[in-house]
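# nightly structure sweep
# worker-07 picked up a monomer target from the shared queue
# config: single-sequence mode, recycle default, output format = structure tokens
# input follows
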Amino acid sequence: MAKGYWIAHVDVRDTERYKDYVAAAKPAFEKYGANFLARGGPVTALEDKARARNVIIEFPSMQAAVDCYNSPEYQIAAKIRQEVADAQMMVVEGI
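# output follows
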């Protein structure tokens, strides 16, 4: 079974409240087997404009990645994130 990956490109508007998002999202990530491969850090934009924060999270499967996003646990966190950051998020199937 192919793994699933969250890829998120984020511009945080309120760094203090973003910490609340991170804390609120943790239970969902633990429940669905999330493994962070990249979280913030320096970025070199090769084409187009890059957002300030880029995250790659590996899940055991595509279904686990989608289920994590749709879970009640994560949706609590998502509401916080949507208030304090602009993001582009997607789930990509691994090979």
